[in-house]
Amino acid sequence: MDRNIMCPRSLRYLLAVAEHHSFTRAAETLFVSQPTLSQQIKQLEESLETQLLDRSGRTVHLTDAGEVYISYARRALGELDAGKRAIQELQDLSRGSLSLGMTPITDYLAAPLIDRFNKRYPGISVGTYEMPQDDIESGVLAGNIDIGIAFTNTLTVAANYEYIETQHLFIEPLNLAVGSTHQYAGQETPLDQHTLEQEPLALLNSDFALRRHIDLYCLEHDIKPSIAIETNSLSTIIEVLRLGRLATILPNTIACQQNEIYPVMLIPELPHHTITLISRKDSYKSPASLAFKGLAAEWGVEGCHDTPVKRTGPCPMSEVCTPNSHN
Amino acid sequence: MDRNIMCPRSLRYLLAVAEHHSFTRAAETLFVSQPTLSQQIKQLEESLETQLLDRSGRTVHLTDAGEVYISYARRALGELDAGKRAIQELQDLSRGSLSLGMTPITDYLAAPLIDRFNKRYPGISVGTYEMPQDDIESGVLAGNIDIGIAFTNTLTVAANYEYIETQHLFIEPLNLAVGSTHQYAGQETPLDQHTLEQEPLALLNSDFALRRHIDLYCLEHDIKPSIAIETNSLSTIIEVLRLGRLATILPNTIACQQNEIYPVMLIPELPHHTITLISRKDSYKSPASLAFKGLAAEWGVEGCHDTPVKRTGPCPMSEVCTPNSHN
DNA sequence: TAGCTCTATAGGCGATGACTATGGCCATCA
DNA sequence: TGATGGCCATAGTCATCGCCTATAGAGCTA
Fold first, then answer.
1. If you measure CA to C1', which residue is closest to nucleotide D19?
2. What residue in B sits closest to A44 (Cα-Cα)?
3. Which nucleotide is nearest to A25 (CA to C1')?
4. H or E element at residue A105
5. Mean pLDDT of chain A, nearest integer
6. Least confident of A164-168, A181-185, A237-241, B128-132
């Protein structure tokens, strides 16, 4: 039907002939035979229904139409080359983007990982979105989020297990956490169930997996916690903790990262949290997200100790943190 | 060597699939089979060493790389289409350029033709260059000038006859021309040779073909003209004529066009001038120059009477003008 | 006029693009 | 849960295309 050929090849041939003012010379530089050039350019001219080259003189040169056309051809080839280069940049991770979904907890935990990723791949722009774990999962399924950083929660993940791929980073103990002026600050011996029930708590609301874990723990051990504040903001909880009166339940690392926040062990022990990357199974993975998963694996093995956080207070239980990594 | 395919075809296929989010649907709109699309896009992806489409989900959609690349592809295709359109415009004469070489004389004579050309093809920019006839011929040979408007001059044209193509427009009588206050202004009877020799003349210098024709005429009839002023500017001559004292020799039409300039016949009669288009033989002719030649032929047949020139003085010899056209 | 240079043409060969038929995967439905 | 239908990938075949060599034809030079 439409013999709309105009392959980049023909265009490059045209440019070469125009540049050398000679089919023969251009053929040499292009490492093709001269008849090939004659033929290809003839076809290009036929497809445009216009003479592009004036072969009548001693040297070949562009007609007016050729002069006009060649500038478009140059730009078109330029775009193709630029497109190729842009893709290269995406692949060598000098450019790109990555969107991460995180809970408030994992946000705190993964901040050093994100910082390290940005240091290693400064050209990749990272977007982080803080949300409940369920939203992370649906975001990953919908493709809005490349990678989620969440807790392994068999209750929720199981539902979409066949669509979701997990990569465990490390296991994180949960403990009670209190401010420095709290009565149990720095206490080395575990608190028992009864003592816990006496402590007014500030907790995330039950949209969040951490809270659901805590509720499950309380249910299993028949603990009736005294919940003073429910919120969806971890920083609110931490600020309240600093005032000294309330306690909360947090991953150990977060307590250690924060100034003036002290972890306190409980008996019975809270179940450890597994921090996990989740992503769509069998889906296309961008180079940036593969790189992130790789870096996260490294970081998980190293453990969470690399966090160069300004800390002044003691962190008596930092050794509880158990670096680990699963596949 | 470099399997740098990326034919516009593949790009259009990619755009279609991205647009329809489906190979099958895209294949229908492109009137090709679905496997063809699969194959072509796979090759495109291989040549870019990148996955452009994510086929894992329910619908096909672009990967990050595909998203990036497709914008370049769109621009490249846009340039190709724009180039094609630009050439169309050149061919349908809605755009283009034309450079004309003219002597001062033919400049005056052809002004109405150029005006008419511009009216008919307003998109074509016309460049006119005033120069001696020899320069016109060399300019035409060198390709700087598309079309020259000159006198047929067997002496000069003969030298390059095989490279130059001529198209006679019309024959133009030469006469003495004087200002309105000159003693012979409005004289109906021809002047003889002796009277001519008494008249001080303002003439173009011998770079110009008109002057060489005049010299030849004088030589043949053994006339010894009294040359008062030599110049390369016709307008200078005309202004001097208006002062009333000097005369010159001019094509009849120019005398008639100018206010207050009167033609006066001579005996023996001056040889008529043939106004001629010259262009390179066997060379590429742009659509614009072909259009100009066509319009010039029309205009030559109609004669030089169409010149809508402001004139106040009488033009007693206008009937001498002999419209004509040769091929 | 012979020789040289340059482009166009002719004919053959391997690569490429497009087709049909088919297989695998997934989602939907009875 | 097995059947069905939609969708993309693969295999195999054929026509076309791009490129090659050989050669013709045109123009310039000696």
1. A36
2. B84
3. C6
4. helix A104-120
5. 82
6. A164-168
Distance CA B250, CA B203 (A): 9
pLDDT single digits (tens) B164-209: 888 888 888 889 999 999 999 988 899 999 999 999 999 999 888 8
Q: Which residues of B touch A93 (CB under 8 A)?
A: none
A221 touches chain B (CB under 8 A): no
B-chain residue closest to A66, CA distance: B87
Burial B162-201 (b: 16+ CB within 10 A, else e): eebbbbbbbbbbbbbbbbbebebbebeeebeeeebeebeb
HEC string of B185-202? Answer: CCCCCCEEHHHHHHCEEE
Q: First and final CA of chain B: distance in angstroms?
A: 55
Mutation to test the B interface, candidates A31, A50, A72, most B Cβ within 10 Å? A72
Work out whether strand B147-151 and strand B164-172 pair parallel, antiparallel, or are unpaired: unpaired
Q: Is the CB of B188 under 7 A from strand D?
A: no
In chain A, residues with a C-beta closer than 8 Å to the C-beta of B63 are 284, 286
Is there contact between A224 and strand C, defined as CB under 7 Å from any strand atom? no
* CA to C1' distance (Å), from A162 to D2: 21
Which residue is nearest to the C1' sugar atom of D28, using CA?
A58
Nearest to B117 by CA among B109, B129, B125: B125
Q: What is the maximal distance between C-alpha atoms in chain A?
A: 104
**Interface with B, mutate which of A30, A87, A283 (most B CBs under 10 A):** A87
Query: Using 50, 70 and 90 to split pLDDT, how confident is the model at A306?
Result: very low
Element (H, E) at B38: helix B34-48
pTM above 0.85, yes or no: no
Nearest to A204 by CA among A230, A235, A169: A230
Q: How open is the CA angle B234-B237-B243, to the nearest 5 degrees?
A: 150
Which residue do the tokens 């990326």 mark? B6
Contact yes or no for B62/B70 (Cβ under 8 A): yes
Share of chain B residues as helix, strand and coil, in percent rounded to the nearest 5: 45, 20, 30
A142 interfacial to chain B (CB closer than 8 Å): no
Query: What residue type is B30 in one-letter code?
Result: L
H or E element that contains B168: strand B164-172
CB A244 within 8 A of CB A182: yes
